[in-house]
Amino acid sequence: MNNFKNIQIKSIQTSTRARFKPKSKAPSSQRAKIIKKDSAFKWFLIILMIIILGFLSGGIGSIVTDRIILPYLSTIPFFERYEFFKSNQPVTIQKNEKVTVNEESGIIAAVKKISPAVVSVISTRDARGFFGDVFQQKGGGTGFILTNDGLIATNKHVVADTGAKYTVVTSDGKNYEAQILARDPSNDFAVIKIQAENLPVAELGNSGDLEVGQKVIAIGNTLGEYQNTVTTGVVSAIGRSVQAGDGMFQSESLEDVIQTDAAINPGNSGGPLVNIQGQVIGINTAIDRQGQLIGFAIPIDNIKTAIDSVIREGKIVRPYIGVRLIPITPELANLNKLPVEKGALIYSGDPNLLPILPGSPAQKAGFKEMDIITRVNEQEIDENHSLTTLLQKYKPGDEITLTVIREGKNLEIKVVLGKMDEKE
Hints:
Elements: H1 28-57, H2 60-73, H3 83-86, H4 103-114, E1 118-128, E2 134-145, E3 151-154, E4 165-169, E5 175-177, E6 179-183, E7 190-193, E8 215-222, E9 226-244, E10 252-260, E11 272-274, E12 280-287, E13 295-299, H5 304-313, E14 318-320, E15 325-328, H6 330-336, E16 343-346, H7 361-365, E17 372-376, E18 379-380, H8 387-391, E19 399-406, E20 409-416, E21 418-420
Antiparallel strand pairs: 1-2, 1-4, 2-3, 3-7, 4-5, 6-7, 8-9, 8-11, 9-10, 10-13, 11-12, 12-13, 14-21, 15-16, 16-17, 17-18, 17-19, 19-20
Helix pairs in contact: 1-2
C-alpha cells in the first residue's frame, strides 16, 4: 500500500473507447510514486548533509539544525517514520569527566600552605672545653605554630635541656625568645610560647583518616641548619610501637605512632608531617638509625586533648589510671599461656617497681597485678589501639568501664580517671 498517507494521487480519466498502455512506460500512478520517492530521497540526502555540516561547524550551525531544520523535518510525512525527527525533546549528552589530581602541584600547594607556620627551635648553652675554655653549644629542632599569639608545638626531647636557652626563628627570619610552657608526661610532645601577634597558624587534620600508602610530606630544620626542608613519602604503617631516645636523655616508649619513608633527619624533630591538603596529621619525632627511610611521627589526634589543656590551663594534663602495663602479643600470650592474644597485662617486670601505683584510680577501683584489660568502654584494645592511646580520648574525672580478665573470669570495672601532669 501507499506509504504517503497525506499525498493523494488522482486517477487519470481515460476514454471509454481505447485504453492504450505502452509497455515501455510505467503506469502514471507508479511514475508519480517513483518521482515522489526520488525527490524525497534527494531531500533526505540534502538534509542529512546539512545536519552533518551543522554538527561539524558547531555554534550557529548546530543551533540552526536543532531549532529550525529538525522541527521543520518533523512536519514532513516522509520523516514521520523516523523517531529521531519526531522528538521535540532536547538531546542531552552527558559527559563524564575524570579529574586527575596532579601530585606534584598538590605537594607544592601543601608546602606553600604549611610553610609559613613552621619554625626552627634553636637551643644554646654555655659549655666548657677540655682546656677550660668556654664555648656555646647549639642544638636544633623544629616546631609549628598552633595559635596566632605564639603557642608552638614541638617534641619534648627538643626542649628537654632545662639549662638551655631556646630561640624560635619564624619563616620570615625573625628571632623570638621562647618559654617552655608544657612538656607532655606521656608523649614526646611539648608546647613553647613566644611573644608575638598575628602569626600564621598550622591547620590540624585528622590522623585517624590516614591509610597505608597515603602520600605525606615532612617539613623541618634539617641537621639544625637548613630551615624548612621538605621531604616526601608515604605512610608505611600505622599503630607502631617504638623505643625512642636522642642519645643524651632518657629514652621512652612511643605507642601508636605513624611509620613513614619520608626522610626525617636530625633537626626535623618536632616538625609537622602533613597530608596533601597541607594539614598536620603528625609530629615528626624519631628515626630508625638501623634502617634507611624509616621515620616515625606522633599522630596529631593523640595530642589534640593535650593542646586543648594547654590552651585552657596553661599546662598539659593527661588522664591516667596508675598501672604499669605490658602490651599482649600472640608471642607473649603463647609463651605465658595467656587466655587472649591482645590486650594490656598489668605487670611491672621489676621487683623495685609496683605494678599499681599507691593511691591511684586503679588501686581505688580494685585492680590487681596480672589482670588483663581487654576493652575501654566499647573499644577493644589491639595492636592499633593501645590502652594508653584510648585513655587520651577522655579527660581527668571521666568515669570509664574497663573489661578485665582475672583468673579466667570476665569482669567489668568502673574507674574514675585521675589527673597526671608533668610533675607526676
